[in-house]
Amino acid sequence: MNTQQNMDERLWDYIDGRLAAEEKPFIEQLIATNNRWKSKYHELLDVHELMSHHLELDQPSMRFTQNVMEEIGKLHITPAAKTYINKRVIWGIGGFFLLTIVINATPIKPANVTAMPAMKDRGRYRKVI
User: Which of 18, 57, 120, 127 qualifies as a cystine partner to 13, CB 3.0-4.6 A?
Assistant: First the structure.
């Protein structure tokens, strides 16, 4: 599959004239000597001819943009901010963050902390100075 895809890509590049100058004689030689390359080249060349000469692109009407805009104008489109966002949720989130800031800003004073009784040194531990 990979070689088939590679062959198609290289032949399309050859037909479109996008090949490097060094590669062009190599592809021409493959088309002249290899039957598979030759048949695929003629097949792709026929497709290229059909696409370039017989395919006509349809032009949109002159009022295309205006017609589309008129159809969009007929639809009722609700504003996003008013209906999708609940104000209570916003106030709740704001209050939470404000409360968090106030709580973290006030220093915490310990209430009547008594000193811990000193442990008796029974020779197990040495004081390191």
Answer: 18
